[in-house]
TrEMBL record:
Family: Belongs to the nucleobase:cation symporter-2 (NCS2) (TC 2.A.40) family. Azg-like subfamily.
The protein's name: NCS2 family permease
InterPro entries documented for this protein: Azg-like (IPR045018), Azg-like_bact_archaea (IPR026033), NCS2 (IPR006043)
Keywords (A to Z) from UniProt: Cell membrane, Membrane, Transmembrane, Transmembrane helix, Transport
UniProt KW Membrane keyword: yes
Places the protein is found: Cell membrane
Chain ranges passing through the membrane: 21-38, 58-81, 88-106, 112-131, 143-161, 173-200, 207-228, 261-282, 343-363, 369-388, 400-424, 436-457
Length: 461
């Protein structure tokens, strides 16, 4: 009876799938994206620091919040959008939240969460009236196809830094190779990365999370055997905690301590970064899954966009950064997942993973950040879709990809690509190909660059 009800609700016959296929697809996608339960807390714990709690305790809180936000968003994707996509706090966006907004601009983390909630509400409203779809479809194609690769390069830099493979060299070349042979963290990180690549290349399901766990286990074993001193490769494991009250609702305090002008600028920044990162991710997932139409757009994109908006709002309320669709969802599609049943399985498995939250604090950051480098390599694959023989595509795509890691900012890369697109199109006499919305986006990003580089934002915080 339940099988028939599920088949009718999700439309198995219409989509040429079965319950068994959908369950397998959901489990596959969950295994490939489950690393976020470990990686997201590792990134956000640098910036989200509730008073009176150790980093280990905060990591466990953030793990709970990560799971709950992924559950809410993916459940919405399943029941409302009927798409086989998994959602969770986005890589790249969490780095932007932590390293740019909080640590670089000095915005209180509560205020940053408030900005996430506000932009989530704005996204829901824009999706409801169809504005997000219009803007996404007006997104210049070369920039749309290169966003994923740019974010990948940005994530790789963050991951390699935490692994101590890349280190600062302010008096020389800005960055340089770390002391891999003499630094235990760097050495184990490289071995763990190579192992994870090997597992991934061999098609092992859950290769990334397995690589992280094996690298962590090797660190604990090395300390137990006396190869390195205690505390070099491992974390002290705090007592288990599921209490997220220091994070949940913290955005309310953030709203109470904002200065209107500066907060508007922060929301403005989050809006553009999140908007186009989500557009790029959805396009990348649709591209990998073969769901795009002849114009490169995802049919009925409003529904997954609404799930994204709801997930982002819920995530900000709970205490995490922006939620987005994961490109790893393509692995479930390759297993035959075609409906929201796949997403429902993902959501249920995320909820079940709450039992493993106490282990999150035991994972060292160098081990968890292996995932960033692996995913970065996968995301670089989108480069091949860019028409590099067309200079009006090559320049915006190249600027998008290069500016992100070199400025440590996703927003700058997107802005550079969008601004350069109408410039090169006009220079080659193809100005008629530029829509009014594309000109408006370019003008808006000129303002974005001015705000970010003139000191206006820092001066009003």
């Amino acid at each position: 009876m339940i099988r028939e009800q599920l088949a009718e609700f999700f439309g198995f016959d219409e989509h040429g799938t079965t319950l068994e296929t959908e369950v397998l697809a959901g489990a596959t996608t969950f295994l490939t994206m489950s690393y976020i339960v470990i990686v997201n807390p590792g990134i956000l714990s640098n910036a989200i620091t509730p008073e009176g709690f150790s980093q280990g305790a905060v990591i466990q809180m953030l793990a709970v919040v990560t799971i709950l936000s992924a559950f809410v968003a993916t459940l919405t994707m399943a029941l409302y959008a009927n798409r086989p996509f998994g959602q969770a706090p986005g890589l790249g966006l969490n780095a932007f939240f932590a390293f740019t907004v909080v640590l670089t601009l000095g915005v209180p983390w509560q205020t940053a969460l408030a900005a996430v909630v506000v932009e989530g509400v704005i996204f829901i409203a824009l999706t409801a009236v169809g504005a997000r779809r219009y803007l996404i479809e007006a997104f210049p194609e070369p920039v749309k196809l290169s966003v994923g690769a740019g974010i990948g390069a940005f994530l790789a830099l963050i991951g390699l830094q935490e692994m101590r493979v890349v280190v600062a060299d302010p008096e020389g070349t800005i960055v340089t190779l770390g002391a891999i042979a003499s630094d235990p963290v760097a050495a184990l990180s490289v071995l763990g990365l190579l192992l994870t690549f090997a597992l991934y290349a061999a098609g092992v399901r859950g290769a990334i999370i397995l690589g992280i766990l094996l690298t962590t286990a090797a660190g604990y074993a090395a300390e137990f055997a006396g190869i390195v001193t205690s505390g070099t490769l491992t974390n002290r494991i705090p007592g288990a905690t599921y209490d997220i009250t220091p994070l949940a609702g913290a955005f309310v305090d953030g709203l109470q301590q904002v200065e209107p002008f500066s907060f508007a600028l922060i929301v403005f920044t989050f809006f553009f970064v999140d908007f186009f990162d989500t557009a790029g991710t959805l396009t990348g997932v649709g591209q990998a899954a073969g769901f795009l139409d002849d114009d490169g757009n995802l049919p009925e994109i409003e529904k997954p966009l609404m799930a994204d908006g709801i997930g982002t709002t819920a995530g900000g309320i709970l205490g995490t950064s922006t939620v987005t669709t994961y490109i790893e969802s393509a692995t479930g599609v390759e297993e035959g997942g075609r409906t929201g049943m796949t997403a429902l399985v993902i959501a249920v498995l995320f909820l079940a993973s709450l039992a493993l939250v106490p282990l999150a604090a035991a994972i060292p950051l160098y081990a968890s950040h292996i995932a960033l480098v692996v995913i970065a390599v996968v995301m670089l694959g989108n480069i091949v879709e860019v028409d590099w023989d067309d200079i009006t595509h090559a320049i915006p795509a190249g600027m998008t990809i290069l500016i992100m890691p070199f400025t440590f900012n996703i927003g700058y890369g997107i802005a550079a690509g969008i601004i350069s697109y109408p410039v090169v199109k006009t220079a080659t006499g193809e100005w008629r190909d530029i829509g009014a919305t594309q000109w408006a986006l370019a003008a808006a990003f000129v303002v974005y660059f001015f705000v970010q580089t003139s000191g206006v934002l820092q001066g009003n915080l």
